[in-house]
């Protein structure tokens, strides 16, 4: 009996702005190790006990998710694209349908992509404990043994031990995030664990319970899968069918109502990395209880998280603060107010600004580009094209482009001509001329692009051919 890991890759991570942005959210960032949170999650389920993972993500992140999956697991794993997010219960249903189609008695391990687990051996042991109960019809969740009274997490009240499945307990009830007094009562009682949002169940058991409790949801998911289509290396759920699916969490739709719920309490060094203060809590601090990352100078600073992914950051006389600098934004807040960052992101969105959407560096399937300067009828960008990658064959109706190779080798299509450019060589692309940029080499290709014209927006691109099906 295989365990089929399903990794939920949605979410915007707004409380980790300005590092986390809508088009490049926290699960895709290296926040706790040299790998992204998603890649750390993938490595936890890479052993022989697990089938290749199934990723569920939205369309905007598909190429980044695919690239990070490829870096960790080569050709293993599949990616399902949601037309829009409908919360975790429909995602679990889609996962169960696909797993059961391949293996009748498949077990589904549902995992968020943006959690930190500092004790992976304990995680693996808990999965083995849960698998016995799941294989016998239980819907198992993993409860984190609390080390403090925390108001930012939901709780599970643990019931009695289940005799047939050592380490598993009945669930008495699920509780939403409590106030401070209630959280203290929960912690002191010893009866409650934090709700991790991780689940293990038989695909057929989950589908049977969903049929009983939320039949309309299951029917919509069945149609979304049956009418779904392959798109390159992805599987797109049918948008019309999926839009009819109620947006509900797996807790609300199933776990709070079923009599099959079980919980495995575990200490796995877990954090949902829900805010900058939670990142400070799990970090290795210096002698002043600080964490400093990037080009940072600190003097008379204690208990603080200082990070710069852009300019040099200097801090003097701070205590218990969060300071995060990127190339286009700086966040400064007391640690205890870190949960309020979401309010700033909401204000940016209402003001129709761009800082909540994307970084200065914008990632594309072929690599990335970054604007470095702009003025009246001109814009300068730096492009990095991955080895073997190429941009679409395209033309622009209102702008011309000048390309200068600063590192690597470029293969350029310009009208009917094709030319190879090396470092310090350049070419000019007139308005309306078909063109394409490729990297035929084994190292990244870096280009300086100067755009000129009366309109320089990204929507002035007419794609004729594209490896990523964007025509």
Throw out a few tags for this protein.
about 475 residues, Spore Coat Polysaccharide Biosynthesis Protein SpsA, Chain A, 3 domains, 6-stranded antiparallel β-sheet, 5-stranded mixed barrel, 11 helices, about 25% helix, about 35% strand
What report would you give on this structure?
The chain folds into three domains: 3-271, Spore Coat Polysaccharide Biosynthesis Protein SpsA, Chain A, CATH 3.90.550; 276-350, no CATH class; 361-465, Jelly Rolls. It is globular and about 75 Å long. The protein is an alpha+beta fold. The protein has helices spanning 37-44, 62-73, 88-102, 120-135, 180-189, 203-213, 215-226, 239-243, 250-255, 276-282, 341-350, and strands at 3-8, 54-58, 78-82, 107-112, 116-117, 139-144, 155-161, 169-175, 192-202, 229-231, 234-236, 261-266, 270-271, 291-299, 305-316, 321-325, 330-334, 361-364, 367-375, 378-385, 393-395, 399-407, 410-414, 417-421, 426-429, 435-438, 445-453, 462-465. A hairpin with a 4-residue loop joins strand 16 and strand 17 (330-334). The relative contact order is 0.11. 24% of the residues lie in helices and 35% in strands. Helix 1 packs across helix 2, helix 3 (88-102) crosses helix 6 and helix 6 (203-213) crosses helix 7 (215-226).
